[in-house]
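A student in our group prepared the protein record below, which I am reviewing. Here is the record exactly as it was handed to me.
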Amino acid sequence: MSPVGSRDSVQNGKPEDDDQAQPVRTFPLNAWYAAAWDFEVKRALLPKTVADRPIVFYRTAGGTPVALADACWHRLVPLSMGKLRGDNDVQCGYHGICFDNEGRATYMPAQDTINPSASVTSYPVVERYRYVWVWPGDPAQADPDLIPDMHWNDDPNWAGDGKTIHVNCDYQLIVDNLMDLTHEQFVHGSSLAHEALSDSDFSVTHDDRTVTVTKWMLGIEAPPFWKKNLQDRFPDYEGPVDRWQIIRFEVPGTVCIDVGVAKAGTGAPEGDRSQGVTGFVLNTMTPETGRTCHYLWAFARDWCLDKQVITTRLREGVSSVFFEDELMLEAQQRGIEANPGYDFYNLNIDAGGMWSRRLVKRMVDAESEERDPGTRGEASRAAGALAAAAGAERSHRDATADVTNRHDAPAAGLMQRGL
C-alpha cells in the first residue's frame, strides 16, 4: 500500500501557461469505450464525443451499429446534422454527399465521378453487455476480447438496470471515487454509511490490466440500503451481517463492484452466500474530453429476479446516491482547474486508485512512444520505474459480437460506489 502522505501530480488541470503548454491526455485511444446503451443507437443519427473524437452513431437497415467521424470530408460540417439515406448511408445536410457504413463516399451531387479520396473515418464497433462500444484508436489493435467483462448486465441469472450520467469531471476522478469506498461513510450517510468502512482492513492486488480492492466487514449492523435488500429474501431477519466490497478495475475506465451482505457467521467469507444477497455495481466511464465524461452504470442482483418493483427501486435508489457523488466530483474538478499543477496527497485508502492511474498512464505512454520513437528511452526509463514500484508494492500487497470491421480513411450520480 502506498505510504501515507505520498503525492501524485494532477495531470488534467489547466496548464499554467496556455501559450506554452497543453494539458496532458489522461486517456488512451487504443481502448474500448462504451459510447451508449444499445437502445440509444437506432435508425437515427446520434452524435457523441468520445476521447475528444466527435463521432456519429447509427444503425444500418440490417441493425448493425455504425460509428463514423462526425465531420463531412467536404467542408467538415457534422454529419449528425444530416440524415440517413438508403440502407447504409448517411447524407451530409450541407451539400448532400453520402457516405456508407465503411465511411466511403457513395454519392456526390452535380458530378458523375466520385473523388477517390472522399471518405471519413469509420471506427470499430462492438455491441455487447447492453452497450455499444467504440475503439477510437488504431483499428488494427481493436480486439473485442479486450472489452471489459460486464456480463451481469445481460445474464439471465441476474436482474437489473441502469442509466447514463454526463459528469463535468475527468473520468479518472470517478475511478478514484469507486476504488475507495470509505467515502460512503461521509457522502452517503443516509443509505450506505457505517463506521466499519473506514475501520476495516483491505487488500490490493493488481496485474497489467486490472486492480482489485477487497474489503470484508464482519458482524456489523446492516446499513439501511442493505438491510432492506436482505429483508427481500429474509423478511424477519434483524441481526448482524457480514458485508463485502470487492472492487475490480479494468483499464482504462471500467469498475465492477461485487457487493452484498449475508447473515453474520453463515460462511460468506468462505464462499457460501446462500444466506445473503449479492449485487454487482457495473460502472464504465468514457472520457468525452479531458474534463467531461459519460458515466454508464447499472446495478444487477441475484435475488427476486422476477420482481420489477425491486429493479426499479434499486435503479432509482442508486440514481440518488450517484447524484451525491456527482456533486462532489464536479466540485473537485473545479478545484483542480482553480489550482493548476497541484499535487494530490495520497493516503493508504488511495492505493487502489493510485494503481489504476499507473496502469492507464502506461497505456498513454506506450501510445506516445509509438507516435514518437524518439521518446523510446524516456518511456523505457518510466516503465522501469513503474516495474520497480510494482515490485515494492507486491512485497506488502496484503496491507494495502464480434467487431464490425472499419477502414481507417484519410483524416479530413450513485450507489454504485459503495453499495
